[in-house]
Amino acid sequence: MAAAGAGVAVVRRRLNPPMPYDFRGKSVLITGGSRGLGLVLAREFAAEGALLTLVARDSAELEQARQELVASGADVLAFTCDVRDEREAANAIERAVARYGGIDVLVNNAGVIQAGPVEHMQTTDFEDALATHMWGPLYTMRAAAPHMRRQGQGRIVNISSIGGKVAVPHLVPYTTSKFALAGLSDGMRAELAKDGISVTTVFPGLMRTGSHFNAMFKGQHSKEFTWFSIIDALPVSSVDAQTAARQIVEAARAGSPQLVISFQAKALAALQALFPRAMAGALKAMNWFLPAPTNEFSGDINRTGWESQTPLAPSVLTQLADQATEDNNGMHGQAAVS
């Protein structure tokens, strides 16, 4: 019966293809919209004629992003918000609705990255990652869903990671929270579909967004920053943020249930599904090559990429990712450590 029903649905879609979703005049809220992928997505939606609401925790970065987008002709509401706080997350939705009369598209993009050996990760590192990547999206989705339900339509895009399919060593808090977001996103998709609300889960591979300088590092800080920056920058292992953003916008337009970005990410996901034992061995071998834990006194301290630079990072090896930091409003952290 399920197969027959699916077949009927396919035939109906082919005979009556859905109209393309037009973002012009639509109210689009992006969390973590002040820099990196969030800002690149804002540019893409602005080019589509969307009405933007950007929220993030850094007011200076937000204002810089707002000024850039307004100068390009976009209609932008920007204000500070910590989505880890349920009241702030709900207030962000209400402010967007008050400004634009509704909320059509919600992009849960806000993120944090903590890199280093699990020996140096504290409970607070896991709590912060889960609060940002799982609780924050839950809060915003719960606040936005009633408005979308009344409209009879809506698009929700949750930015997970290939780390939400494959648990990469030295990123355990990050991958734990991204797995949680993937499960939350899948469950919300099934239950919100009846209300005309589509939920897209995005699993990007490494992207050159400029996030490496603003990530947090533990253990041997400089070595952790170096390996992370290099693989985040090389074209063979990463994609540029603009390519990723365009794919995300198109997935949102189509209401796609899932988007995996980059050939490398798709290959990793397939290998994990088909050959879990081999992947377990490969990830174990990868961990052997990563920097070993160090003493608790220094290794347990969080340091940003700005505080962990080496002769190799930044260098010609990280040039593409370094340029993305400058292009995508990620330089604010430099002033804090200079």
TrEMBL record:
Arranged from A to Z, the UniProt key words for this protein are:
Oxidoreductase
Per the similarity annotation, which family is this? Belongs to the short-chain dehydrogenases/reductases (SDR) family.
Q: What CDD domains does the record tag this protein with?
A: SDR_c
Gene Ontology MF: a single term: oxidoreductase activity
Q: Which PROSITE patterns does its entry note?
A: ADH_SHORT
Protein's UniProt name: Ketoacyl reductase
Q: Which Pfam families match?
A: adh_short
Q: Which InterPro entries match?
A: KR_dom, NAD(P)-bd_dom_sf, Sc_DH/Rdtase_CS, SDR_fam
The UniProt entry, under PANTHER family, shows: DEHYDROGENASE/REDUCTASE SDR FAMILY MEMBER 7B, DEHYDROGENASE_REDUCTASE SDR FAMILY MEMBER 7B
**Is this entry keyworded Oxidoreductase?**
yes
Question: What region holds the Ketoreductase domain?
Answer: 26-187
Organism of origin is: Kouleothrix aurantiaca
Q: Which GO terms describe its cellular component?
A: membrane
Keyword Lipid metabolism (UniProt): no
